[in-house]
Design the sequence.
């Protein structure tokens, strides 16, 4: 039972390079999320996808793009990496995003991608 | 989401109960109280949630004040594996967007 799988687990980039972080969930969840976590801080929402075919900006979307490839997969792309994007990135999924059921649904997280940009 | 306030850190001895407090004085009637924890080098893990009544599950208990302005996560017998950062989060379920907003949480240290 894999849950939420993120690849890669570690990555080092040079400033200006691009890369895509992959996330897949096997729980048939409708909603998926991308967060970043900087040292000593809580998680901050980058983008989310309430359902297949929709994506929306979160708290810190600048410098990122996302693609909800299908119901299982939600990728995060850095087009031109900057040192300020050095962070740990977490993907999560949940059954329902909003409404009475949404507030009642836990999010399930992957183990993160540790990204360093030099 | 409404704001929550938690102590930065707490310590506990192994096999003793731990009470992790959370203040949420601006909670609205449609907010659920959720708790997550994050073990070192892992993603957050759902622990428990509740609305008005106290809740129990295999991991913990959640005690909610009658006025809902505060809550307490109770670990009945702390183990070394419970050492983590614990986040108290309010989630609106009124029909609008229901995102998780993480604060800095409480870092729980468990000692022998």
Sequence:
């Amino acid at each position: 039972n894999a849950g939420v799988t993120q690849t890669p687990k570690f990555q080092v980039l040079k400033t200006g390079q691009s890369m895509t972080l992959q996330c897949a969930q096997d729980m048939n969840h409708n909603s998926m999320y991308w967060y970043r976590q900087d040292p000593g801080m809580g998680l901050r929402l980058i983008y989310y996808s309430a359902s297949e075919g929709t994506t929306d900006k979160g708290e810190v979307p600048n410098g990122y793009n996302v693609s909800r490839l299908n119901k299982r997969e939600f990728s995060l792309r850095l087009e031109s990496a900057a040192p300020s994007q050095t962070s740990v990135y977490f993907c999560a999924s949940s059954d329902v995003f909003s409404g009475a059921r949404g507030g009642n649904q836990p999010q399930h997280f992957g183990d993160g991608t540790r990204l360093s940009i030099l | 989401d409404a704001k929550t306030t938690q102590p930065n850190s707490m310590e506990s001895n192994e096999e003793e109960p731990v009470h992790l407090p959370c203040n949420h004085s601006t909670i609205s009637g449609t907010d659920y109280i959720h708790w997550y924890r994050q073990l070192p080098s892992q993603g957050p893990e759902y622990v428990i949630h509740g609305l008005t009544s106290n809740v129990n599950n295999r991991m913990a208990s959640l005690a909610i004040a009658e006025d809902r302005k505060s809550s307490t996560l109770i670990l009945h017998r702390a183990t070394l594996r419970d050492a983590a950062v614990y986040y108290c989060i309010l989630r609106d379920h009124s029909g609008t967007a229901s995102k998780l907003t993480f604060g800095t949480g409480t870092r729980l240290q468990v000692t022998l």
Summary: Chain B has a mean pLDDT of 91. Chain B touches chain A through 27 residues (CB under 8 Å).
